[in-house]
């Protein structure tokens, strides 16, 4: 085996939010324990590797962003390999394994990885290992962990083959060309989401710490006859099993408290992709009645004094802080309550073993501790297994320690999924459940991801209301549960709702409003333009809009814009417009009753609404959901979309609605064009490709 020692392979990652990078780093780390050397680079660093001459196996970890695009860091690479002048054997010398990351709730699942994989195949490259497609919707680790486990064996075989090829070519010079097309080694790993029970034990491995603990050591097992496992309680067989836990990730951040004072960095310094603006909230309206299941708010921002520009259909981002009480609580648990306002300096630890350790871009080098916990870190993020692994080292109570080990172990994978991931357990929940766990601040900075700005669709037209931007959102609410005794609101929507409460209830005597009008709050925003979800450039083209719930939001902007154009250009020809809207109850959450005005003034040609929870006395029950209503208008939809080459827009909930709508459209195409379902799906794919079937969907 010694001849395999320190064999090199090239490891490329293409990351958008850091997940692909973190997984590549995990591979890099494990490689050492397998006697291999991973030459790791971001795929954008094209001066550091050369696939044209690469002889060693290549491993690629690549995520997906936007509507099925490769991450920004892979753009140049993809452009390069998509050069149509490249010959079909351009990469015939290349052996590679690819791990794609994605989210199956989006239409183009793992498309970033699939695009690169397909193109490498077209250019003659060969898989030495089956492609893995990991789904963030059910848990990336369900595919990632077994994929990495299987990688080592696949790499060994690839090296063996490479060696055989090299020695053959030295013996029989000239025959080597026929050998270069060596049979592809495909490992029969079924890398689907059901893979969680896959067990790949390599006894020789030193990558994981193998733990065997006797039952007597464990405090938390079901000693009281309680046989149900929970976040903190483990039951046999897991509580009695030996555990394979991941290697301890090397620390790489150093935090120094400073005596100095000063100012925190401006929020704009946290955003590299766009210019940020702090704009006043000039209006807040509650669109739903008090008894509606979800509360929807409309906010109006004054952008008149800024360069912020938008088109109807664009979205924009709100930079939001973490909940102030949660930050306080975290400081308290960390034993740093008194130090929240202290300035800290965050640096990369000298001599860290973490490969390619760099200063995290979302953390200012110098700011107060509170600033970092409030604006920079997603403190509610679901802890990854590597984080749990690191937390084990900060936990003193033996039973708690064992349970954390279990939760990050291979054997405890289904407990991790059930009690952490599916239960949306965040760091604070974990620290409450495991009170002897006292992590250091540097560990939190290393493991908590960036607090992401939240996107919202613009619900206004700059033509109709110059200098204003409106948007609509539902306040996200999470009810209390066993791991969290109090209910919570979404980070951004909870913050916004609290911020605009004085505008919504101006008569309530809050300290802000006493004796005068409510103070005007400002929120930080930046643009998130899109290139496709816009009105058709030609106003005579008909279009259909489908937007249940808050999905109606961008279409209000479309209709306002269209109304203004109609007023200003009486000689233009305007195409027919359809709007399908749905909500639960007509009298509780019909967000925009003034849609009727658009209908009356001719801006909207057809308005079709449905109410999913209203009871009906009609003999034939009315349709409940927008997709049901669309089916009732199959002929008209087919005419607009297929005969008149119109546009079809869908906005709103991706989980429950978007797929239902596209299924309805497939059925309509199949029925109206008299083709089978597969053919209809192909036609829909062509419409998507032509950007005439457009979706703007979110969870
Ligand atoms: P978060 O705190 O981020 O929570 C949201 C999600 O986190 C939950 O759905 C759940 O999956 C998970 N989660 C977190 N904690 C828990 C818990 N304790 N229990 C269960 N689950 C939990 N939204 C609108 O309302 N209107 C819009 O116009 C709109 N437009 C959008 C446009 C785009 C392009 C995109 C990408 C998104 C859009 N969204 C819109 C969604 C919006 O960006 C936010 O995701 C949403 O408002 C929730 O943000 P939040 O911070 O309040 O919730």
Question: Can you offer a commentary on this structure?
Answer:
With 699 residues, the protein is α/β, with parallel strands linked by helices. Among the domains are: 7-166, Flavodoxin domain (Rossmann fold); 543-697, Nucleotide-binding domain of ferredoxin-NADP reductase (FNR) module (Rossmann fold, 3-Layer(aba) Sandwich). The protein is built from 20 helices and 24 strands. The strands form six sheets. Strands 1, 2, 3, 4, 5 and 6 form a six-stranded parallel beta sheet that branches. It has a six-stranded antiparallel beta sheet with strand order 15-12-19-10-11-16. The longest helix is centred in the first third of the chain and has 31 residues, at 141-171. The chain is globular and about 75 Å long. Bound molecules: flavin-adenine dinucleotide (FAD). Flavin-adenine dinucleotide binds at residues 315, 380, 424, 454-457, 471-474, 476, 478, 488, 490-494, 550, 553, 696, 698-699. The site of flavin-adenine dinucleotide has 24 residues, from β15, β16, α13 and β24. It is found in: Cytoplasm. This is Methionine synthase reductase. Forms a multiprotein complex with MMACHC, MMADHC and MTR. Its EC number is 1.16.1.8.
């Amino acid at each position: 085996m010694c001849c395999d020692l320190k064999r090199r392979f090239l490891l490329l990652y293409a990351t958008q939010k850091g997940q692909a990078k973190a997984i590549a780093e995990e591979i890099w780390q494990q490689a050492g324990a397998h006697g291999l050397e991973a030459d790791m680079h971001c795929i954008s660093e094209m001066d550091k590797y050369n696939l044209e001459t690469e002889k060693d196996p290549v491993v690629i970890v690549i995520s997906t962003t936007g509507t099925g695009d490769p991450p920004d860091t892979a753009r140049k690479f993809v452009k390069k390999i998509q050069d149509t002048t490249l010959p079909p054997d351009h990469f015939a010398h290349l052996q590679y394994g690819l791990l794609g990351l994605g989210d199956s709730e989006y239409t183009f699942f793992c498309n970033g990885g699939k695009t690169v994989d397909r193109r490498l195949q077209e250019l003659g490259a060969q898989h030495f290992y089956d492609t893995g497609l990991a789904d963030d919707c059910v848990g990336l680790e369900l595919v990632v962990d077994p994929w990495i486990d299987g990688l080592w064996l696949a790499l060994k075989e690839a090296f063996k083959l490479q060696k055989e090829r090299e020695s053959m070519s030295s013996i029989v010079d000239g025959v080597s060309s026929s050998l270069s097309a060596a049979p592809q080694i495909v490992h029969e790993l079924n890398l689907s989401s059901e893979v969680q029970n896959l067990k790949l034990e390599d006894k020789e491995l030193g990558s994981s710490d193998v733990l065997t603990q006797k039952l007597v050591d464990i405090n938390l097992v079901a000693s009281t006859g309680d046989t149900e496992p929970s976040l903190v309680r483990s039951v046999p067989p897991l509580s009695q099993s030996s555990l394979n836990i991941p290697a301890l990730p090397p620390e790489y951040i150093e935090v120094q408290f400073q005596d100095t004072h000063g100012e925190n960095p401006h929020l704009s310094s946290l955003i590299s992709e766009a210019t940020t603006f702090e704009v006043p909230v000039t209006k807040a309206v509650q669109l739903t009645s008090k008894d509606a299941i979800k509360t929807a708010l409309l906010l109006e921002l004054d952008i008149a004094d800024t360069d912020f520009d938008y088109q109807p259909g664009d979205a924009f981002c709100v930079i939001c802080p973490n909940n102030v009480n949660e930050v306080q609580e975290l400081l308290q648990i960390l034993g740093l309550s008194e130090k929240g306002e202290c300035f800290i300096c965050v640096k990369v630890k000298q001599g860290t073993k973490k490969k390619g350790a760099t200063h995290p871009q979302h953390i200012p080098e110098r700011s107060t501790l509170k600033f970092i916990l409030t604006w920079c870190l997603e403190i509610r993020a679901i802890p990854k297994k590597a984080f749990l692994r690191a937390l084990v080292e900060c936990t003193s109570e033996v039973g708690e320690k064992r349970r954390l080990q279990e939760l990050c172990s291979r054997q405890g994978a289904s407990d991790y999924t059930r009690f952490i991931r599916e239960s949306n357990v965040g760091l604070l929940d974990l620290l409450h459940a495991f009170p002897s766990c006292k992590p250091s601040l540097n560990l939190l900075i290393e493991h908590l991801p960036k607090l992401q700005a939240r996107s919202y669709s613009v619900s206004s037209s700059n033509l109709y209301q110059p200098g204003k931007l409106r948007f609509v959102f539902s306040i996200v609410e999470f009810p209390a549960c066993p791991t969290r005794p109090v209910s919570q609101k979404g980070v951004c929507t909870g913050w916004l709702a609290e911020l605009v409460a004085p505008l919504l209830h101006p008569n309530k005597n809050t300290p802000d409003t006493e004796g005068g009008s409510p103070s005007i709050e400002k929120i930080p925003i930046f643009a998130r333009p899109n290139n496709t979800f816009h009105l058709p450039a030609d106003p005579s083209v008909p279009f259909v809009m489908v937007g249940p719930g808050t999905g109606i939001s961008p279409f209000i902007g479309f209709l306002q814009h269209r109304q203004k154009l109609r007023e200003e250009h009486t000689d233009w020809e305007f195409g027919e417009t359809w709007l399908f809207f749905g909500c639960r109850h007509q009298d509780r959450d019909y967000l925009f009753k003034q849609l009727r005005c658009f209908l009356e003034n001719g801006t909207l040609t057809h308005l079709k609404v449905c109410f999913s929870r209203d009871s009906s006395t009609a003999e034939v029950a009315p349709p409940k959901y927008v997709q049901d209503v669309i089916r009732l208008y199959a002929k008209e939809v087919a005419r607009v979309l297929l005969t008149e080459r119109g546009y079809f827009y869908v906005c709103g909930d991706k989980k429950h609605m978007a797929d239902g709508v596209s299924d309805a459209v497939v059925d309509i195409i199949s029925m109206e064009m008299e083709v089978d379902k597969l053919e209809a799906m192909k036609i829909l794919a062509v419409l998507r490709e032509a950007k005439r079937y457009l979706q703007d969907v979110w969870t």
